[in-house]
Amino acid sequence: MIFFAVSILTLAALLAAFPTNTRNNAASIPLTRRLNVPSGQTLPEIDKARAQAFKSTAAQRAQKDSSITPVPVTNTAVLYTAEVLIGEPPQTFDLIVDIGSSSTWIGANTSNPYTPTNTSTATSTILCVQFIEYGSGLFIGLEYNDTVTIGGLSIPNQTIGDAQWALGFEAGVDGILGLGLLDAYEVGIAFAPPNSTSDPNGELTFGGVDSSKFNGDLTYTNITTTYPAMDYVGFNQSVTFGNQTLLSNTAGIVDTGTTLVELASDAFATYQNLTGAVLDSTTGLLTISSAQLDNLPSLFFIIENATFELTSNAQLWPRALNSAIGGKNDSIYLIVSDLGTPSGEGLDFVNGYAFLERFYAVYDTGNSRVGFATTPFTFSTSN
Ligand SMILES: *[C@@H]1O[C@H](CO)[C@@H](O)[C@H](O)[C@H]1NC(C)=O
Ligand SMILES: *[C@@H]1O[C@H](CO)[C@@H](O)[C@H](O)[C@H]1NC(C)=O
Ligand SMILES: *[C@@H]1O[C@H](CO)[C@@H](O)[C@H](O)[C@H]1NC(C)=O
Ligand SMILES: *[C@@H]1O[C@H](CO)[C@@H](O)[C@H](O)[C@H]1NC(C)=O
Ligand SMILES: *[C@@H]1O[C@H](CO)[C@@H](O)[C@H](O)[C@H]1NC(C)=O
Ligand SMILES: *[C@@H]1O[C@H](CO)[C@@H](O)[C@H](O)[C@H]1NC(C)=O
Ligand SMILES: *[C@@H]1O[C@H](CO)[C@@H](O)[C@H](O)[C@H]1NC(C)=O
Ligand SMILES: *[C@@H]1O[C@H](CO)[C@@H](O)[C@H](O)[C@H]1NC(C)=O
Ligand SMILES: *[C@@H]1O[C@H](CO)[C@@H](O)[C@H](O)[C@H]1NC(C)=O
Ligand SMILES: *[C@@H]1O[C@H](CO)[C@@H](O)[C@H](O)[C@H]1NC(C)=O
Ligand SMILES: *[C@@H]1O[C@H](CO)[C@@H](O)[C@H](O)[C@H]1NC(C)=O
């Protein structure tokens, strides 16, 4: 199959409309969490497939392979969506927020089609038909420029893809809001531990950070120069469990399309060994007894000179959501899972939602760095 790797400018262009010298124009929008585990698949399987896709996509890119495919986001158990308005009069779209993607697409829900209005411009007189594989999904679409409104800010003439045909998307989702091509702007990302399968518990801030969502200072670290993590929101960190080092100053990524915290297979095996956890075949997650939970040390993420503590409670899959993933209500499942490949390959961890629900993150593309801070939820015992 032939894929045309036609880039679609997204918020890069959109955010170019923001003044560079002020944070006053930062716009925040709420994020809605949706949980949807496809039958026959487990969370760790889904996350592992995505991590391996990150690696293979980077490899294709390095080989200048023309069939570059965007990283899958739709085939994921937890989605955060944001409401974005497009056109004049504005039409509302619920888009999956994806920090790993660089394209913005709409049109996945055929009952909520995009209707070009007087603010729409087809970007080419020749209809630009694009085939872009999106994980298990597929888009065939046209490119338009139109007015995009996020958080009350309207920016004219922004480039979007309109799917004429889309396959493999979650119900209730209109497409993708890709954050990967942001240019010179910050995106602040706040999540919180969930109490139900559809909490409105996140916030995305464009053009700055929302300091009400975190404590103290942000710790910034440069986007790593280590391949392949460098192709994504990659950075270096060390991971220790209690007093045991699992990963020492190694490259990996933070990702809004990954549910769990993934560690390279050797680090994961050590973690499992130290916890005494067993693998539960139904959920694919590690499970521990309440006695083991009582003795579960914290998992520490050391980024630059700061240490971010994932407490024992933060290492648990929210027990209120056990049944949503096919688990038993009275079981205790852990959110640390196996990346599927050994350490030393330049992408040795993925800090997914289980991490982002405890720490604020800011992706500062202009300065090629990512920042983290603790939040009011870091030490929450809600799980
Ligand atoms: C575009 O259409 C809207 C409503 O249909 C109208 O209010 C607006 O004035 C139009 N804009 C232009 C530039 O024609
Ligand atoms: C569409 O928008 C992009 C980015 O703003 C711009 O570079 C391009 O020239 C526009 N195309 C048309 C046909 O307006
Ligand atoms: C969109 O941007 C392009 C390139 O800057 C410009 O030529 C075009 O007139 C703009 N279109 C609208 C509707 O503003
Ligand atoms: C698709 O969009 C329509 C119109 O907005 C909406 O009523 C419907 O619920 C959406 N479909 C799904 C599966 O969410
Ligand atoms: C979950 O419940 C706790 C305790 O009631 C509350 O503090 C927290 O804000 C809730 N989280 C969300 C995302 O609603
Ligand atoms: C991060 O990158 C900036 C800009 O390239 C550089 O000045 C700085 O020294 C780097 N910091 C570290 C800790 O490497
Ligand atoms: C690490 O912690 C364990 C459990 O608290 C303890 O038994 C062990 O002696 C410690 N090891 C070192 C090297 O401190
Ligand atoms: C980041 O980690 C990689 C190993 O994944 C290592 O080779 C590299 O030197 C580290 N970079 C820094 C700046 O420490
Ligand atoms: C951990 O690994 C050691 C040595 O490989 C083994 O003897 C021990 O039984 C393992 N512990 C657990 C809890 O699996
Ligand atoms: C981290 O600590 C070391 C040693 O204390 C210091 O030299 C270095 O500048 C610190 N780095 C940052 C980014 O604060
Ligand atoms: C398990 O928990 C869910 C959600 O809280 C609840 O709906 C269900 O009835 C519980 N099942 C059992 C067997 O208690």
Main structural class? mainly beta
Report the average pLDDT across residues: 82
CATH class of the largest domain: Mainly Beta
Helix content: 10-25%
The CATH topology of the largest domain comes to Cathepsin D, subunit A, domain 1
What does the radius of gyration come to? 20 Å
Query: What are the low-pLDDT stretches, counting only 5+ consecutive residues below 50?
Result: 1-24, 66-74, 125-136
Strand content: 35-45%
* Overall 3D shape: globular
Instruction: Spell out which ligands are present.
Output: 2-acetamido-2-deoxy-beta-D-glucopyranose
Layout of secondary structure:
Layout: H1 11-15, E1 27-35, H2 43-62, E2 78-86, E3 91-98, E4 105-106, E5 121-122, E6 130-134, E7 137-150, E8 153-167, E9 175-178, E10 186-190, E11 202-206, E12 219-222, E13 234-241, E14 244-254, E15 261-263, H3 265-275, E16 278-279, E17 286-288, H4 290-294, E18 299-303, E19 306-310, E20 332-333, E21 336-338, E22 349-351, H5 353-356, E23 359-364, E24 369-374
The structure holds 2-acetamido-2-deoxy-beta-D-glucopyranose (11 copies).
The site of one 2-acetamido-2-deoxy-beta-D-glucopyranose has 2 residues, from loops.
Domain Peptidase A1: 80-373
Organism: Phanerochaete carnosa (strain HHB-10118-sp)
InterPro entries: Aspartic_peptidase_A1, Pepsin-like_dom, PEPTIDASE_A1, Peptidase_aspartic_dom_sf
